[in-house]
Design a protein that fits this description.
The chain is globular, with a radius of gyration of 18 Å. Helix 5 runs parallel beside helix 7 and helix 6 (106-123) runs antiparallel to helix 7 (132-153). It has helices at 4-14, 17-30, 39-59, 62-75, 82-103, 106-123, 132-153, 156-182. The chain is built from 8 helices and no strands. The chain is an all-alpha fold.
């Protein structure tokens, strides 16, 4: 078995491009070894996608972003819990939004809105345990994607939805703050 955990940890500590490249290669080798459709395959694909997205942020190579999107999409396919699915969908949505900004392809933006909308629906469920920071990141990404789609198509429903999710977050934060003050 490929020692991907060690290599990815080294990347996080050293931030040397060689370690990132080695970690990506290791995860590429590990991915096909997992059973198709399994949570193991999903986890490995998600990790590979995140590493490729990291390399894209350093190099700007769109091929890394495209491969990251494909891997992140596979990473969303099989997850055991909604909190993990929410996190993966948000990361996929962010990558798709970045791809839209690079290519101006409406399909990328529509898919980003779809992924981020599903992540947002899950993030509001207290039972799944999404942190406030993750929930805020999800709302921010969804609002950005909806605003970009409004700018592209001019559909007021997109702008209305962006405002709704931001207002919903504001009221949720206010409710939480009031609840904390009573304790």
């Amino acid at each position: 078995m490929v020692d991907t955990r060690f290599r990815s940890c080294r990347w996080g500590q050293d931030e040397q491009p060689e370690q990132l490249d080695a970690a990506i290669d290791a995860w590429r080798q590990a991915l096909p070894q997992a059973e198709a459709g399994s949570t193991m395959q999903s986890s490995r694909a998600d990790r590979l996608g995140r590493l490729l997205a990291t390399r894209y942020t350093h190099t700007g190579d769109v091929r890394d972003l495209d491969e990251a999107i494909a891997a992140l999409n596979l990473g969303c396919a099989s997850t055991d819990d909604l909190a993990t699915r929410c996190d993966r969908l948000r990361y996929l949505g962010d990558a798709l939004l970045e791809r839209y900004e690079q290519s101006a392809q409406p399909d990328n933006l529509d898919y980003a809105v779809s992924a981020l909308s599903e992540a947002h629906r899950h993030s509001g469920k207290p039972a799944i345990g999404v942190s406030d920071g993750e929930r805020l990141a999800c709302v921010r990404s969804l609002a950005a994607a909806l605003t970009a789609r409004f700018a592209m198509r001019g559909n007021p429903a997109d702008l209305d939805k962006a405002i709704d999710v931001l207002q919903h977050l504001r009221s949720a934060v206010s409710d939480r703050d009031r609840s904390s003050a009573r304790r």
